[in-house]
């Protein structure tokens, strides 16, 4: 069963419908699953947003470049959730909590199944780091586990993928992984000099490596000219194994941004989402920060 969400004539409590009306349940009208638009474009997106400097969203009249971050958006025309007394609100929340807890338990079960995955032994790759050539096994720096984010790359471009740039900008403090015998680094197929310059330009705090002189990227489903990916590797002595991989929306679980946005009343406000009538609906990706936005906020002047 799901709660019916009604568009109110106004937010004034005197004109609000009764609690009994608002808390009506419709057992015959389940909310359908949200389907993200064109997942086939995932090879060119960070699971959601195309690189804005590569693909112009014609439905957006103004570009994100130069947008004032303090810009205020008028919400007067948007619908809002119905206003009820405390009791029906708690009842509705309790109904939702059942589904939230079921989702948590399912994620626990998925994680348990993930821990039982087999591994594939990898060749002895040599990548390029800030100090020069480095064996893949040495990138672990003595840890047993390594997460690699494979950043999309276009040689010579002024700005790299906005999705990759925004996603990796979140990870400013990764010391907690030390307690779990793990590291998290960025690997790109671009030249190391360009990669390090771009890292500084956008203010990224992670360690970067280049696989431009090896087949590592292509061998772990992140080839030159292809999409982004996340791989999890494990080390046993001098041997490295591939344990897990994801791309597309599979990376959402690694990010805090959408976890925060999804608990807001209006959610992501993107046109593909299943939202009540009158909710804000904007072109997909239009709320995302692009690479120049990240550079303005965190990069070196």
Strand order of the largest sheet: 3-10-9-6-7-8
Gyration radius, in Å = 23 Å
State which percent range the strand residues make up: 15-25%
Structural class: alpha+beta
Q: Which regions contain 5 or more consecutive residues with pLDDT less than 50?
A: 1-30, 38-50, 52-72
Average of the residue pLDDT scores: 82
Tally of domains: 2
- Number of E strands: 10
So, the CATH homologous superfamily of the largest domain? Glutaredoxin
Could you spell the SSE succession in H and E letters? EHEHEEEHEHEHEHEEHH
Oligomer: single chain
Which overall shape is indicated by the principal axes computed on the Cα atoms?
globular
Tally of contiguous helical segments: 8
According to CATH, what is the topology of the largest domain? Glutaredoxin
The CATH C-level class name of the largest domain: Alpha Beta
Largest sheet: 6 strands, mixed
CATH architectural name of the largest domain: 3-Layer(aba) Sandwich
**Share of helical residues:** 10-25%
Distance between the termini: 53 Å
How would you concisely characterize the structure shown here?
The protein is 24% helix and 16% strand. By secondary structure, it is α+β, with helices and mostly antiparallel strands.
Write up what this structure looks like:
Helix 4 (162-169) packs parallel to helix 8 (291-298). The chain is an alpha+beta fold. Strand 9 (229-236) and strand 10 form a beta hairpin. It has helices at residues 19-22, 86-114, 136-139, 162-169, 192-202, 216-219, 257-261, 291-298; strands at 2-3, 25-26, 120-121, 126-129, 132-135, 145-151, 182-188, 208-210, 229-236, 239-246. A six-stranded mixed β-sheet has the order 3-10-9-6-7-8. Strands 1-2 form a two-stranded antiparallel ribbon. Strands 4-5 form a two-stranded antiparallel sheet. The chain is built from eight helices and ten strands. The longest helix is centred in the first third of the chain and has 29 residues, at 86-114. It has two domains: 1-31 and 90-116, no CATH class; 36-64 and 119-301, Glutaredoxin. It is globular, with a radius of gyration of 23 Å. 24% of the residues are buried.
